[in-house]
Amino acid sequence: xxxxxxxxxxxxxxxxxxxxxxxxxxxxxxxxxxxxxxxxxxxxxxxxxxxxxxxxxxxxxxxxxxxxxxxxxxxxxxxxxxxxxxxxxxxxxxxxxxxxxxxxxxxxxxxxxxxxxxxxxxxxxxxxxxxxxxxxxxxxxxxxxxxxxxxxxxxxxxxxxxxxxxxxxxxxxxxxxxxxxxxxxxxxxxxxxxxxxxxxxxxxxxxxxxxxxxxxxxxxxxxxxxxxxxxxxxxxxxxxxxxxxxxxxxxxxxxxxxxxxxxxxxxxxxxxxxxxxxxxxxxxxxxxxxxxxxxxxxxxxxxxxxxxxxxxxxxxxxxxxxxxxxxxxxxxxxx
Length: 335
Prior knowledge:
Layout: E1 2-7, H1 13-19, H2 22-29, E2 32-34, H3 48-51, E3 56-59, H4 68-74, E4 80-83, H5 92-97, E5 101-104, H6 106-124, H7 128-134, H8 139-146, E6 153-160, H9 164-173, E7 177-183, H10 189-195, E8 198-199, H11 202-208, E9 211-214, H12 228-231, E10 239-242, H13 251-260, E11 265-268, E12 288-290, H14 302-317, E13 325-326, H15 328-331
Parallel strand pairs: 1-2, 1-3, 3-4, 4-5, 6-7, 6-9, 7-8, 9-10, 10-11, 11-12
Antiparallel strand pairs: 5-13
Helix pairs in contact: 2-14, 6-9, 6-14, 7-8
């Protein structure tokens, strides 16, 4: 039997149990002996006798960051990490450098983000978000405001980033009569043609699209990439949606554009810092809709992430080709 352990930096067993439900645990246990203690970076030495033979690690949000030295000293036989959550940018590189397989449930976590985004786009194109606030004050003026929106027929929607989430949003938009413009320097022309989208610059998208949704990968090169040059070009009743990362936005530039033309709207599931600092203009503005980072997996959705990783683990056990392993090359462009 394969020796395995669960890792959580904050030793949150409740989270592990919630993500890895009874079904996943039962299936994993048929092929692995699971250590009874949760492991984090601080208790490696305490459990080093067991860890020296561990072949597989399971985790979810809160995976500890292990150095090469940690891996060499405490986990010399480690071959694979199965991460039932999304981005592995924070911890994957030392593992990959040591030849450890890293698998992520990013594909599973992309599903609720894309579904959430689709709902926001369809509502935004009808002016739902500001209408819901304005109607409480004056029904007639709220209706007049919403009449300036095109709805969801023959409208342009901008998608920033055609990775796992962005691509899924594009697929979900196909039944609707919208034209999708995409910004993604890494998107091959042939894939864009297959998706039925038009590749454009950021300026073109912000200048033309009724709704713009950000799904750009969280990389050093994308920090502060969305700024005055883009937000100042938003249509008078356009909506900017961010379920990507707050650090990609120059907040003061977005705020200025929303103040200059208050019929513009921003829907922000992420900010930088998160939550917004006390006193931030984002907390005061009627045309800013804030949510507490809820686009990703939550509730029953978290079980899907462990299901993806359980099935990936079974492929590993059977020596089959893996579907969701991450490489160093992939980390250059993925979220």
